[in-house]
Every structure is written in structure tokens, then in C-alpha cells.
Amino acid sequence: MLRKFWADRRGNYAMLTAIAMVPLMGGLAVAIDYSEMTRERSQALNALDAAALATARAYQAGTPEEQLPAFAEEFFRINSNGLDMSKVDLTLALPNADTGGGTVKLTADLKYSPHFLPVLTSLLGKNAVTEIDLGAFSEVQLKNTLEVALVLDNSGSMSDKGGSSNQLRIDLLKAAAKELVSTLAKQGEQMKQVSQPVQFSVVPFASSVNVGSGYEEATWMDRDGISPIHHENFDWSTMSKAKNVNKYVENVGGVWYRRGKDWGTQENGKITRFTMYKEMQHYSCTATNWNGSCRTWSTTAVKFANWKGCVEARPSPYNVDDTPPSSATPATLFVPMFAPDESSVDANPENSWWPDGSITGTTNHVARQSFMPKYFPGTPPQIASSETTDGPNKSCSTTAITPLTDVSVAAGKAVIDAAIDGMQPNGATNVPEGMAWGWRTVSSGAPFTEGRPESEKGNDKVVIVVTDGANTYYTPGSLGDWEGRYSDGAGNKSVYSALGYVKLVTPGYTTNLGRMFQGTSSSISNTNYDNANYTAAMNEHFKKLCDNAKAKKIMVMTVALDLSNSKPAEKTQIEMLKKCASDSRFRKDPDDPSKPAKLFWNSTGKTLSDDFKKIGDELSNLRIVG
């Protein structure tokens, strides 16, 4: 029977075809399912890449982290071309929010439901395969950007030789700073897809900071004279209507205006430090005798001095923070420095630059110093101009701030290099004011707005402070020249600088407490008028400034240059600089490996270059590339 069956040729083709159809249809079914599964996985991968990239951008732009999972899922859905979202499980992993760089990783667990595979597996006697797990992920490397403020000491002591290096400290600093810029600039050049990857600002400081004379009309400057410190040394009651009906000033809503016909075209205009710079005139010397005395004077009066760009420290607490300037809060505005003409009658003042003897009609030093009509005489005086270190620009000795500039392009690097090369040492040391302006240059808000928003992730804001001395503010009696020590007839208790005078003597002011002691603790006496106490007060300003900056996630690096632990004031400065410094994210304290290392370097003239290379290594480790 069986032999007949195999021998019978009738219907064999149909039978063989039917038998062959089982594996053929199974293979076709698997192929169809595989093709569909591959298509869905490809759709998921494309959507995953798009969602991961968009989420990374949203993360860096500062979108709150709790909103990002929903953002990623919605972006994935829009780009998934109809995938069943009920079968997709997304997981988002973000980097450490406190540091730059890192990755954003988006993982998708996709469930694929095959069409024919369940039937085929059942025919083969297996458990029906109704779902297949498809896993995929997309990872976006965040390119960290850097904004670095170089806050560099330009005080007079920077003209000393650096330790045993036989080079001036200022020259050693210039070389080390430029090398650091070059190192980071080369790394920035590799980040072609990132806008402004590495930016530097340069903030030279001495006894004050120069923001640049081009900012006179900036909204953050006190153009109306409404700051509580704007008229600190001016006694406008000496120009009242009762004294001269044809040339007086009037306060309207906190702003002083010129009144009276003798002002000419200036009548009814505002009167501020800015207008005083513009309007004070004199007859200049056109030829001198062999001994330097003037032989001939000009016949036309010209402007006496231009504002060079230095500003005073804001009143407490705004001197130690980054509160945006606003006319709604006048104390937050920045006031141009204007050193008063000091009385020289029977005295040797540190800054007497304008004739006041005959016009004031008094020998009282306070009255002569704050007497305002002397700056607006009917006939301009015959005196030399004041565009250097004396006059209203006294203590304004540094070059101007260079705002954040992209050094990954040659033109930007050239600007920063030129700013470093242009520094010249002259003046006292006011580290708090230098650091405050360093912070302001990397900030996103006014005065300087070149910095990225603070909410933007993957961006580090760094302030590097380098100084070779303790904070200094001088009494007149501690300074002088071959003619002798300077006198202090008006009782200012200090020379004029960014903090103004330590004691206010202007008639009409309700307090004699200057800004030196504002915001200090009870351990600082506000009646102790000596250099050491001024240093102690400025040290407290510096500490608060450091704490405030680090609380706002500013990375602070500090360098003590040629400071000695054997000198009490310098030892205190070393300790302060170390406490001010932020903790390293990558290095451990060699003395205590359980703690991070401090971003502080106690440098000498010989080690400064190597220490700046270590700073470069630290900044490079912030995942500037990856």
C-alpha cells in the first residue's frame, strides 16, 4: 500500500507544494515581522536622537530639570511617525547639575507586537511570542563653555622684582596670564559647533577699577546724581539762591539743577560729576620757561579734565554683591570718581589741584574743600591741565576693563593679549573692588552683559584673582615725598580712592561714617583711623564678597604672589585668599585626601608660570572638550 502511494504520480505537485508552504509561509511571516520590527526600531532611534538633542539644548538653556522628562517624551512622540506610545518607556539621565560638561542620555524600551510570529511559534509547539523587547538609547555629550575673569593686581608693588627671578612681577604676571589664555584658546578652537566656547575678561585693579570712559551714558551709571554717594564731598548749599540769584543750584526730586541767567546755555540743566568734568574750564599753558614755569597761556579756555573711567565702590551691601544697577534703587548705580580739590592753605594736602584761596573767602579746610562755586568761576583760572594722576581723576591709575571676549578666534585672543600687555603698575591695593568687578564681567546682567545666563547649564563662570600684597588704604600722614608727609586739614582720615574718604566732613551730611566701615562687624572700630584698621575692614569686605560669589556658583581661583607668612598682614592675606578659593572638582587635598584641594596657589616669581599651568589644567578638566 505504501509502495503504491509513493509510486502514484497523480497530485504529487499539489501535495509537495502544500508541504513546502509551511516553511515558506513561516519564513515569509518572519521576514514581514522582521521588516516591520526594523522599521519601528529605526523610527524609534530617529525620534530618540531628535528628542535627546532637543532635551540637551533645553537642559543647557536652563529648563527646570523636573520638566525635562515630559519635554523629552513629547519631542519623541512628535518625531516618532505614529509609534504606539503606550508601548514605549522612556528614561532620561541628566548630568550633575552643579558641574559643567557631562552627557544627557535618553533610553527607550520599545515593545514590538509581531503579526505572524505568534502563529508560527504555536505551530512549532512553542509558547506563542506575542511581544519583543527592543532597547535603544541616544547620548548627547555636553560641550562645556568657560567664562574667565582675570582679576590682576596692578598696584605699585607689582613693579618690584618677583622673588629671585630677576624679572618684574608685572612682567611675570603678563607672561603667565597670556600663556593661560593661549592654552584655553587652543582647546576652544576644537569646539567648532559651539558659539564662544572660551571667553576671557581682563580686570586690572589697584586702588580702584576703571570700567572705561565710554560707559558714561550707560544706564547703569548714575547720570542724574541720585545715588546717596554722588554728592558726598559737595556742599551745594554754598550755591544757594540766597547767595547768588543769578547763579545757583536747586534740588528737584533728588536731582540738582542749574538756575539763573549767569549759567548761560547751561541754565536748567542737571549738575552732576559728569557735567562737572565736561564744564570745568581753564587757560592752559602753551609755552614754558627753562625751569618748567609757564611763559604764555592760551587765550581760549579749554576743558580741564576728562573722566578717565574709574568708579567708586557702591554703598553697603551693594559693594560686595552683583545686584543689577537700577534707578529705582539709586544706591545700586555706579558713580564716577571725582577727587575733591583739597585745601592747601597752611597745609600740604595730598590732592590740591584747583585754586580756591580767593574765591572761598575762608581759611577753614572743610569749607574750602566742599565749596562748590570754586569750580565755576566767572573767569577760568590759568593752571596746568590734569589728565594724569592728580586732579579729579586721582587714584584712577589702571587701564580699563576688557569685557568677556571669545579667544577661540584670533581677533578675540589678540584683544585679550593686548589688554594684558597694556597693564602698568601704579597705586594701592583694593582686592575687593577688583574681585567685585571680575564677578560683574562674567555675570549676565548689567553692568557687563556678555556673560551667558546663570540658568544655562554646561557653562562655568570663573574668577581668577592674583595679588602681591595686603589690602591697603592710606592715611595722608602715612604718605608723602621729599617735601614731607601729607597733611589732613579737613579731617578726611584718608586719601581719596574708590571708597571715598574714610570720614565724611561735608556740611549737611547726617553721618560722618564713610563706606570703609559700612557692613563691617563689631570687631572693626569705626573710630580707629589707621592703615591697619582699614586693611582689616577691607578684609571683611573681601570675605563677604567671596562668600556671595561662591553662593552664586562662581568658581573662585586665587593666587598669592610673593607674600610671606612671616609678615602678619601678608600672612592674613594668604589665609584669606585660600579661604576665598573654591574647592577643586578633580584634585584632593594632599594633606587630607578626604577633602578636595583648594583652588589656591601660594606663588613666587619663579613658580608663577608653573602655577598658572596648573590653573590651566584645572580649567581643562572642566570637560572643555569631550
From TrEMBL:
CDD domains: vWFA (cd00198). This is VWFA domain-containing protein. The chain crosses the membrane at residues 12-32. Keywords: Membrane, Transmembrane, Transmembrane helix. SUPFAM superfamilies: vWA-like. It holds the Pfam family Tad. Residues 147-210 form the VWFA domain.
